[in-house]
Amino acid sequence: MGAGHAHKLYRHGHSPVHGLPPHTKLAAVFAFVVVVVSTPREAMWAFGLYAVLLGVVAYAARVPAGFLLRRLLIEVPFVAFAVLMPFVAEGERIDVLGLSLSVNGLWGAWNVLAKGTLGVAASVLLAATTELRELLLGLQRLKLPPLLVQIASFMIRYGDVITDEMRRMRIARESRGFEARGVRHWGVLAKSAGALFIRSYERGERVHLAMVSRGYAGAMPVIDEVTASRAQWSYALALPVSALAVCLLGWSL
User: Fold this and answer.
1) Measured between alpha carbons, how far is residue 89 from residues 42, 92, 107, 114 in Å?
2) What is the spatial distance between Cα 90 and Cα 112, in angstroms, rounded to a whole number?
3) How far apart are CA 111 and CA 108, in angstroms?
4) What percent of the chain clears pLDDT 90, i.e. is strictly above it?
5) What is the torsion angle, in degrees rounded to the nearest 10, for the CA atoms of residue 232, residue 236, residue 241 and residue 246?
6) Pfam family example for this protein (predicted)?
7) Quick check: helix, strand or coil at residue 153?
8) How many helices (H) does the chain have, and how many strands (E)?
9) What pLDDT, in 10s, does the model give residues 79-106?
10) By CB atoms within 10 Å of each CB, which of 52, 95, 200, 226 scores lowest?
11) What's the CA gap between 178 and 173, in Å, rounded?
12) Which H/E stretch holds residue 245?
């Protein structure tokens, strides 16, 4: 899959969670999210226990609470949507602090906030303890279609290439005294965007030709064979199994 590739969400460490094979962590997070989504929204205590489970994982991974909370800001648009639901939903209404709110809307907002926050938190913990290259290897190990894995791999790498090219173009503009201050400067920015697209397309063609000349035939070679022992699977699946027990209690109580 190429050389190592660090990302801003990753937090370097040597915890037991960092040491788990990537495909075990991917399977554990996916199963945990499925269990959380399957939990009845009325079992509010269950979501508190899920948060405790994620807290235990964060503690084992040595991920600080501040790091996790800052990354959770990505769900702000969903929070805004959830806040509007009690006001726009139909059905039975109740008065809260002088406001007429929909009962179904309140439950829906709680459902979105609780399940969305837990899902995002689990994903952030996965990203914080697993490098991008390892995630791609994990997806490959889980038998995701090879074409999708390759697309994801190229997307990640070319995202950084394009970002770096944008940075160089910005520095070139600023070194010539350009500073975007209004609508009259949009033409220059549009030309820069067009040039960036052409450069990216040409670079993609050159990289493809280089890969073909080195024997690429539609499949990337597997450099690292990632395996997991039974103990590692047991350690990784402790989270979704514990969550499943909470979910079953939520349905039965």
Assistant:
1) 18, 9, 10, 18
2) 17
3) 5
4) 40
5) 150
6) CbiQ
7) helix
8) 9, 2
9) 888 888 888 788 788 877 777 888 888 9
10) 95
11) 5
12) helix 230-252
pLDDT on residue 199: 84
Query: Is the distance from CB of 121 to CB of 68 less than 8 angstroms?
Result: yes
The C-alpha atoms of residue 56 and residue 168 are separated, in whole angstroms, by 43
- Per-residue tokens: 90: 């139909």
> For residue 152, which amino acid is it?
A
Q: If you search the block for the tokens 């837990």, which residue do you land on?
A: 118
Q: At what angle do helices 76-88 and 103-129 cross, to 10 degrees?
A: 170
Terminal Cα distance for the chain, rounded: 48
What letters, b where the CB count within 10 A reaches 16 and e where it falls short, cover 84-122? ebbeebeeebeeeeeeebbeebbbbbbbbbbbbbbbbbb
pTM above 0.85, yes or no: no
Residue 94 DSSP SS3: strand
31: how many CB neighbours lie within 10 A of its CB? 17
- The token pair at 200 is 């990216």
Q: Token pair 């070194």 is at which residue? A: 175
- Please say whether the beta carbons of 113 and 79 come within 8 A: yes
CB 18 within 8 A of CB 233: no
Structure tokens at 64: 């600080």
